[in-house]
Design brief:
With about 450 residues, the protein is α/β, with parallel strands linked by helices. The chain is built from 16 helices and 11 strands. The protein has helices at about 25-35, 45-50, 65-70, 90-95, 100-105, 110-115, 140-160, 185-195, 200-210, 230-235, 250-265, 280-285, 290-305, 310-315, 360-380, 410-425; strands spanning about 15-20, 80-85, 120, 160-170, 215-220, 240, 265-275, 320-325, 335-345, 350-355, 385. The strands form 2 sheets. It has a 7-stranded parallel beta sheet, sandwiched between helices. Strands 8-7-9-10 form a 4-stranded mixed beta sheet. Helix 1 crosses helix 15 (about 360-380), helix 7 (about 140-160) crosses helix 8 (about 185-195) and helix 7 (about 140-160) packs across helix 9 (about 200-210). The chain is globular. The protein starts with 13 loop residues before the first strand and ends in a 15-residue tail after the last helix. The mean pLDDT is about 95. The structure holds nicotinamide-adenine-dinucleotide. The site of nicotinamide-adenine-dinucleotide has 36 residues, from helix 1, strand 2, helix 12 and helix 15.
């Protein structure tokens, strides 16, 4: 909890953004920031760069940019670091990912080529489809965590950074369920020494971040920092954390449309979602164990928005199916189809079809930027532990134990903006508006 109008430390000096995984999302993020800094493009899709926030009454006409309300790090003060299991620098990785045009990449080639990934903590068992050479070795998982802690300290010193944030944009790991090992800091640390299989590489990065006081945002659906041991460590070390799984593409559409259907009390018989995707993420998700992690993250959204237990006449037993098919010719340009079977007045049936020809990493890159900047802000504002106000960015928002996640994108945005108003000492906006008619 922070007080209204809390003192937020200014964003002085350099902010190091440590990316786990230097693939399609990360390189699109880094190249985009470099292009935006040079005025080659606008930061479209980024709330921190383009979003405004209404303050006070509607008649006050006060709608500053978010970045003018709260002290966010400037793009010119960002320094990137990364880990990846492949040796490719960010220029080669971006070229391989095939998201951005050669022409744009060539104009920022110097910055990209200078970003070389540090050796990763990786184990084949968690991402079976990938085989990389740029991988750390150690006698147990605790030793690997210590190597990451050293990497973090070295990066900070060498790049003269005031502050750091870490964003997980590496491959989705196999499905793991929370167990005893994840219950306490002690059981987790013992398991690190024992190299317990319940500790996935992403948890080792998250642990290293918590020990180093570095905020951690999880862009993939793996558990990572979403276990009691690490949320406790985050609280204890006063570090903000958030996740899971960037909300782009099909789930973005779902959390825009479902609240609209529910607001009109229209019923749902079924929602069938399928995708074709041809990038490395699609290849990893082609493995059933990795897809299971993604599926869990994608499926929970509708249940929470529609609340079948509150509206059994409208939403009891609707069928919800999500598929992802690896189809190389499309690369990063995912096509997602939704067939939505709804019903209205007197039970009459209707259908909605969506064909979203999106670009996965173009949608994800601005989310990675916003998360890095907001997590840094949160830390300077003295916020720690789970940052539920950043649910806006995630398919499976991390929440306090026992609290159901808020998936409705409009509620998520209101929550985010009200948090910023609260931080800046402004009145919250309830949209009641009766005072205009007094
Ligand atoms: N693009 C989107 O719209 C989107 C949306 C939601 C979530 N995500 C998630 O974001 C992640 C990144 O997506 P992407 O399209 O960039 O994938 P990608 O396959 O292009 O990049 C992932 C990179 O992570 C590396 N990697 C794997 N395990 C690692 C480890 N333990 N340590 C360091 N590096 C490791 C891989 O070598 C690869 O270069 C995926 O988990 C994906 O599911 C993406």
């Amino acid at each position: 909890m922070i007080e209204k109008g809390t003192e937020v430390a200014p964003a002085n000096g350099k902010l190091g953004v440590l990316l786990v995984g230097l693939g399609a999302v990360s390189t699109t993020f880094v190249a985009g920031v470099e292009a935006i800094k040079r005025g080659m493009a606008a930061p479209v899709g980024s709330l921190t760069q383009m979003g405004t926030i209404r303050l006070g009454k509607r008649t006050d006409n006060r709608s500053p940019r978010i970045k003018d309300l709260v002290p966010l790090a400037d793009l010119n003060d960002i320094v990137f670091g990364a880990w990846d299991i492949f040796h490719d620098n960010a220029f080669d990785a971006a070229t391989n990912a095939g998201v951005l045009e050669k022409d744009l990449l060539n104009q920022v080639s110097e910055q990209l080529a200078g970003l070389k990934p540090m050796p990763a903590v990786f184990e084949q068992n968690y991402v079976k489809r990938l085989h990389g050479e740029n991988v750390k070795t150690g006698k147990n998982k605790m030793e690997l965590a210590e190597q990451l802690i050293d990497d973090i300290a070295r990066f900070k010193a060498e790049n003269n950074c005031e502050r750091l944030v870490m964003v997980w944009a590496a491959s989705t790991e196999i499905f793991l369920e929370e167990s005893e090992v994840h219950a306490t800091i002690e059981s987790f640390e013992k398991a690190l020494y024992d190299s317990d299989p319940a500790i996935a590489p992403s948890m080792i990065y998250a642990y290293a971040a918590m020990k180093s006081g570095v905020p951690f945002a999880n862009g993939a659906p793996n558990l990572s920092v979403d276990i009691p041991a690490l949320t406790k460590l985050a609280e204890q070390n006063r570090v903000p954390i958030c996740g899971k799984d960037f909300k782009t593409g099909q789930t973005l559409m779902k959390t825009i449309i479902a609240p609209g259907l529910k607001s009109r009390m229209l019923g749902l018989d079924g929602w069938y979602s399928t995708n074709i995707l041809g990038n490395r993420d699609g290849e990893v998700l082609d493995d059933p164990e990795n897809f299971k992690t993604k599926e869990e993250s994608k499926l929970s959204v509708l249940e929470h928005i529609l609340q079948p237990e509150v509206h059994p006449d409208l939403y009891d037993n609707f069928s919800h199916v999500v598929r992802i098919n690896y189809y190389p010719p499309r690369g990063d340009n995912k096509e997602g189809w939704d067939a939505i079977d709804i019903f209205g007045w007197l039970g009459y049936k209707m259908q909605i079809k969506i064909d979203f020809m999106c670009r996965d990493s173009i949608l994800a890159a601005p989310l990675a930027l916003d998360l890095a900047l907001f997590m840094d802000l949160a830390q300077r504002a003295g916020m720690r532990g789970i940052q539920e106000w950043l649910s806006f960015y995630f398919k499976a928002p991390q929440t306090a134990p026992g609290l159901y996640p808020e998936h409705d994108i409009f509620i998520q945005l209101m929550k985010l903006k009200n948090t910023l108003r609260h931080m800046a000492g402004e009145d919250l906006i309830t949209h009641l508006g009766l005072e205009y008619y007094d």
